Amino acid sequence: MYRVGLLVPSSNTIMEPEFYRMAPAGVSVHSARIRLTEFTHDALMKSLDDVQREAELLSSAHVDVMVYGCSTCAIIGSVDWEQVLLDQIKFNTGVRVVTVNLAMVEAIRALGGGRVGVVTPYTDTLNRLKRKYLEAHGLTVSSIRGLGLSDAFRIGAVDEGAIMPLVQEAAREADVILIGCSSISVVHLIERIESETGVPVVTSNQAGFWAAIRGSGFRAADGYGGLMGLP
Q1: What's the CATH code of the domain at 159?
Q2: Secondary element (H or E) of residue 105
């Protein structure tokens, strides 16, 4: 059995179900929760104590990898902050750690890079930080569109009727579409979007799961985009 551990923001009701549906036979998913109900700098900084404590508890389940599931934390805290967080968790637990943000960067590169059309549920302020984060990793952002939300539970209620128009607009000028947030339910839309637009899709949870099982000998269940077929 290959065990994937999740460090999930407490208000996130989407990441676990999406990981479960992508998991093939032989892969199990185990989670711990980090208190986070709004995407602000103060709230994110306060969550750090929870991160280390919950990571140590999760390691006692003998997980093979941990996925840090807050995609806004690194864009607010900076690239250097994200690396320090990764190093601390790995040092305290001895477990390989993946963040959904770095997983998305690697997924975009694996799909050939180029112009990235970004769609999020976030405010303009968070989207400016999202663009800065992606560009710091050498990616080219062709556009970034959001829904203006910062409340985590409202983000979890976003449906395809709200997100699809933004995706279709982003596809017109992109080589890769990035739907960035682990709290919105979109993995079931990936193959539909790729079929309709001809543009490969990366989402937070899809990329996080891909990175978590990469090199494990397992492959995700079918139906979650071209990324899942890549080594």
Answers
A1: 3.40.50.12500
A2: helix 100-110
Do 85 and 129 lie in one domain? The reply is no
Q: Which two tokens stand for residue 129?
A: 């930080």
**Could you report how far apart the first and last alpha carbons of the chain are, in Å?**
20
pLDDT tens digits along 98-141 = 999 999 999 999 999 999 999 999 999 889 999 999 999 999 99
Amino acid at 207: A
Whether 206 shows a pLDDT value over 70: the answer reads yes
Same domain flag for 70 and 113:
no
Count of domains for the chain = 2
For residues 152 and 217, membership in a common domain is answered with no
Q: Tell me, what's the pLDDT at 39?
A: 66
| Mean pLDDT within 64-88 | 86
Residues 108 and 199 in one domain: yes
Give yes or no: residues 199 and 212 share one domain: no
Q: Are residues 82 and 61 in the same domain?
A: yes
Rounded CA-CA distance 129/148 in Å is 14
The predicted-structure confidence for 6-31, as pLDDT tens digits, reads as follows: 999 888 999 999 999 999 999 999 99
Helices (H) then strands (E): counts for the chain: 11, 8
CA angle (29, 189, 35) in 5-degree steps: 45
| Cβ(30)–Cβ(3) below 8 Å | yes
Q: What angle do CA 113, 114, 120 make, to 5 degrees?
A: 80
